[in-house]
Structures are given as C-alpha cells and as structure tokens.
Amino acid sequence: MRARAVLALGAVVFAGLAAPGARAQERPAEGTARDWQIAREQVAWAMTHRRAAGPWFGELLGAIGERLVGTRYEPHTLELAGPERLVINLESLDCVTFVENVLVMARLAWTADAALVEDPHRFETAYRRELTAIRYRDGVLDGYPSRLHYFSEWIGDNEAKGLVDGVSQALGGVVDESPLDFMSTHPDAYRQLADPGVLAAIAGTEARLASVPRHYLPEDGIEDAARGIREGDIIAATSTVPGLDIAHTGIAVWRDGALRLMHAPLVGSHVQISDETLAARIARIEGQDGVMVARPLPPR
Question: What is the 3-state secondary structure (H, E, C) of the chain?
Fold first, then answer.
C-alpha cells in the first residue's frame, strides 16, 4: 500500500482525517440560524423526493449530496477553541463533515414525518442525536479522544452500530497491515495532544486498531471493482503517508455511465463532482493509492 512517494505533510493531510488541530474560524458550535435552515430544507426536500421517486437509500444520499454541490470548502471545521463539542456547520464543509451531514440528512428523511421538520426543537434534537451517533465512538461524545479521527475506525465503528456496511473486502480488497500512529507521532500538530492524558488516550486507540484488519481496494483494482460500487457508497481514499490510513473522503455517484466522486476537496474550494472517474482520480493523485468503501444502511 505504500509503494508511491509520500507527499509533504502539509499537502497530504486533509481536514477531518486525523488532521492537525488548527482552529477553524470561530463560530458557534451549536450552529447558526442559516445552518439549521439548510438542514431543514435539505431534509424536507429529501422526504418529498423519497416519496415521489422511491430511491433506495444510497440513491437518496447521492441526491442530497448533489444539492450541496457548490457549498464552500473549509478545513478544520471541527477544531473550535475549548473542549470537544458537537459542531454543526453546513455553511462550509470539509471532506468528512460533508459525508457525515449527508448521511444524517438521509437517515432523518428516510424515517421522519413532516411534523419533525416543522418543529425546530424536535428537528435539532434529532439532528444532533444522529450526528453524535455517527461522529463519535459508540455514539458517545466523551472528549476529543472519543471522536473517530481515523476514518477506517469511523467505518468500523459505524458498521458496528448498524449504520454502514464495510464492503471493501467483498469487492476484492486486500489487507493493509501498516500501523496507525500518525497522531501520536506528530503530537505537535494537534493542540489537543498537548494534554498528556489526551495523547495517551489517542495512543491507546492506535494500539487497539493495530489488531483490526483494514481491507482496501488498491488503485489498480478500482476499475474492475467499480460495477460493485453503488450510488451513495462512502469512498475513503487510502493514504501513502506512514501512520495515516485515509487521505480524503467522499460519496460515490454514477454519472454518464462512469463512477465519479462527489466530495469537498481542498483543491476547488467547494463541494463538487469530479470530472474524471474515481479510478483515474486515485491514480493521478500522489499520496493516495486505493480506496475503502462503506455502504450506508437505511434506518431500521
């Protein structure tokens, strides 16, 4: 998995993916009125779309994500000053918060009735509950170490919670045996790791993850596996940086008969759908050498 040269640290570590803890522009963690307006509008539209078109769950994610195309990209959106809090930010997104919020919107739209969207308190409570369940280990916010910083753990933890199905192995994936230790070996890059207790907790997580197999599709196998990847599947591009599992994330979409990536990239400054195929994109980008794939599951 580490066949290609490693890019400079600053060019390869994307916001949200075990990324250095630079602070985002200060804004209320609980979200602005505009954030909640966006959330309600998207869920209300998705509820109508689901009833009218009857898409399967992944297609609903793709449809919601496409409505967010053009949303501003902003790195480190979760890195606010102070203790770890649930951050609501839909005015700007990074590659992980784009995936997380689209999944939340789809889950609410799949089961909710119109009364939920019309009741701001109920809606915001439900949204926070879903986002907490997705973003934090075992669905519990318990400080900075409880956030699912390594995206391979994000997939595994959300699979254990019944929210996604990791399908990389079924698609022909192979095991990546390289250790995960990027955060503990670069503590100066994370303001939170100045606390010895937090650093120890992160190192403990990394040690535990060492025994968890990580399946991924190498870049030369993506084209052959593409037909098994569905609209709305979550795509995580694997990293060549030692100690780091994932460099970037997005949502799979099929356009003009080709598998493409819908994502919030650092290059481009807004949510977009890639012009090139997923396989071509991974092959082109130095520092990425494959993908992990997780299939969102509808609420039970």
Answer: CCCCCCCCHHHHCCCCCCCCCCCCCCCCCCCCHHHHHHHHHHHHHHHHHHHHHCCCHHHHHHHHHHHCCCCEECCCCCCCCCCCCCCCCCCEECHHHHHHHHHHHHHHHHHCCHHHHHCHHHHHHHHHHHHHHHHEHHHCCCCHHHECCCHHHHHHHHHHCCCEEECCCCCCCEEECCCCCHHHHCHHHCHHHHCHHHHHHHHHHHHHHCCCCEEEEEHHHHHHHHHHCCCCCEEEEEECCCCCCEEEEEEEEEECCEEEEEECCCCCCECEECCCCHHHHHHHCCCEEEEEEEEECCCC
Q: Are strands 92-93 and 72-73 parallel, antiparallel or unpaired?
A: parallel
Structure tokens at 2: 């580490």
Q: What is the token pair recorded at 56?
A: 């399967």
- pLDDT tens digits, one per residue of 106-163: 999 999 888 999 999 999 999 999 999 999 999 999 999 999 999 999 999 999 999 9
* Closest-CA residue to 76 (of 100, 102, 61, 95): 95
Type of residue found at 178: S
Query: What CATH superfamily classification does 9-296 receive?
Result: Putative xylanase like domain (1.10.3670.10)
Residue 136: phi, psi to the nearest 5?
-120, 150
From the list 38, 53, 140, the residue with the least C-alpha distance to 93 is 38
Residues, the chain, total? 300
| Torsion of the alpha carbons at 288, 294, 296 and 300, rounded to the nearest 10 | -150
- Its pTM stands at 0.93
Nearest CA to 84 among 137, 161, 12, 126?
137
